[in-house]
Amino acid sequence: MIIPFLSSIGVIAFFFLSKKLFDEETAIYSVVLFSIIPMNIFWGSKILTDTLLVTWAILSCYFFWEAFFGNLKKYNAVLFGIFSAFGFLSRYSMIWFFIIFFVSLLFKYKHLKFLYEKNLWISITSFFVLVGPWFVYNYFTYGSWLGFLVQANEASMRWGGRSFFLYFSYLFKNFWITLPLIFLGILKFRKKSANSFIFVFSWFFLLFVSLSLMAHKEERYFLILLPPICLLTSFGILKLKKYKKLIFVSLVAFFIFMNFSPFLNWVYSYDSPEQTCFFETMDFIQSSNASYIVTEHFSPVYFYTFKPNIRVGNYSTIKLIIDFYYPNETIFYYYVEGDWFNLIEENKSLGDNLVFSCNTFKLFNISR
User: Do the Cβ atoms of 224 and 54 come closer than 8 Å?
Assistant: First the structure.
């Protein structure tokens, strides 16, 4: 329940951020859209660091604005650094927000003297107080202060790259109906809100480009783009003054319908081979006589499925434990190709004990 709760906190924070950047009407339109977009509802209900990142990023943006564009109080600078640290520790994608903050300050000051701002250094200090131990851990674990980036790159290579244009297709699939409004909002922004607009547009544009340049891509990474998309859509709606309420109500009705529509099968590809094989593997396990399931995959889905009959650990280590403590039990090893290491390459004899296979999902009998 913690993740959905924090996701709800993110919705509330998004309202106050939108109101601080623009006005109450823009905030209401934006937060309603943000709350009912199918992508946000689908992924926001899951236990994912991406959902955490959205909430921490929104809170970070709110206190950034207060610290440098609002009341300029020092406690806002401290909170800006704290929530930026939370976002960074949730997902390293938070790094891209530092560029967005830099661009926004540069646009406001038109020079680099803001680098001497006291609030900036208060924020940086509070940020490193929280993430400092993480850098120390990386140094002693990986031999480098930035070891986490090496590990992230290796993980990306293991899962493979995808097309640069993938997120363009996600943008069209999920927001084709709002794209004209987004373009209208960009083309006709209010000059008196230039600082706010540059901040929102930078959030959308810079993050969209950075995500597209990343080799490994997943739809859940797109979640961080939903707040600026909702704001830009609201800009477009408000520009159509005479019809704004009609368009807004129609858009809300459309998204509510979409949340209960079979159309989501196309958007989210529920019938993908991976999804099908996962359920086939689960059915096979539940119909078998296995006493325990051993896996290196830490997803809560497996814990929920197998309940107390699951054990987590490295194959080579846990095999010794099984042979010693569970000599008379039937035990399966659940493995997804690409996870952590090439299991069969390192354990040649294991291939002879394959009992089930579907695409990349494998089950091995590792009983004594």
Answer: yes
